[in-house]
Amino acid sequence: LALITNSDWVYTRTLMEVAFEPFLPGGMRWWQLFDVVVVSACKPDFFTETRRPLYSVATADGMLREALRMELGGQYAGGNARMVEKVTRCRGEEFLYVGDHIFTDVNMAKRCLSWRTCMILQELEQEVVGLDQGREEGQQLRALMSRRDEYAALRCHVRSELQRRRAQRDDGGGGICGGDGDGGSGGGTPSEWEVSAVASEERLREAIEACEAQIQPMVETEGAHVNRYWGYLSRAGWADKSHLMRQIEKYADIYTSRISNLLAYTAYFRFTASPQSLQHDVPHAHLKVRSAATGSGDIPRVSPRSET
Fold first, then answer.
1. Inter-axis angle of helices 135-170 and 192-221, to 10 degrees?
2. How far is residue 59's CA from residue 83's CA, in Å, rounded to a whole number?
């Protein structure tokens, strides 16, 4: 177990004495919790191959003396991550580095050293509560979007079929029969089928607009109960992840709101991520719309459900 911080020795010592020592067995000091302590680490440079001078902490008030290598149980200033790997006899994925800064800690430790990383995101607790509170509204929004998409698919079919029949009638073709049994013999007069199709297409357009009128304000205010300015921390808009979450997914093997959440697990526990879904992984309820090409001249009907 190693402590690596950019703070100087005096600040680190004072903070750790207040935060840890009241809870330790009598006579035990905070640095005895760690195999090695590194202050003034100068992260993110600490994780690179840059050769930096190493000093050991010689006195309680932070006086330093030059050191050539790290030793277990020591307190140091400077150095680099390769020295920590050497003294602990661990490399790469054998490390789990815990940090609260997406670039200085998580990004560099993963990219430069292939260490396992754990991101501490304190705001995650409020985010989880907010997502739970907004679950019902989210379900309503998804239902409205699904209904709008159904209407849009039906409208697209009606418009395409109407355009095809008009082209056939204007060209004087007689191979297509209208829904009223009247052949498309040219002449430019709309058939009863076309009149009915236009009315059906107009009803679908109105149904889509009614859905949009409800969807737009719900999308704009989604997540406002978490933060009235930018909504959910983990989302950008309705369907996209925020840039922060994309960075966390890329560089953090696990993330949590506080390190104490790991107390329920042993040092040998294996965390397994859930599969990442892609658009073609998600089952889609494709609409079964009959077309005139199958021999049926039926117009897809819709009885718009109440949008209130």
1. 150
2. 22
Contact at 8 Å (CB) between 113 and 81?
yes
CB 201: neighbour CB atoms within 10 A?
A: 21
Cα(43)–Cα(80) distance, rounded to whole angstroms?
9
- Residue among 18, 15, 23, 21 at smallest CA distance from 39: 15
Burial class (CB in 10 A: 0-12, 13-18, 19+), 156: middle
- Between CA 2 and CA 75 the distance in angstroms is 10
Instruction: Say how far apart CA 222 and CA 236 lie, in whole Å.
Output: 11
Reading the chain (308 residues) residue by residue, the pLDDT tens digits are: 999 999 999 999 999 999 999 999 988 999 999 999 999 999 999 998 888 899 999 888 889 999 999 999 999 999 999 999 999 999 989 999 999 999 999 999 999 999 999 999 999 999 999 889 988 998 999 999 999 999 999 999 899 888 888 888 777 654 444 444 444 444 567 788 888 889 999 999 999 999 999 999 998 888 888 888 888 888 888 878 889 899 998 999 999 999 999 999 988 888 887 877 777 776 654 544 544 334 444 555 544 444 43
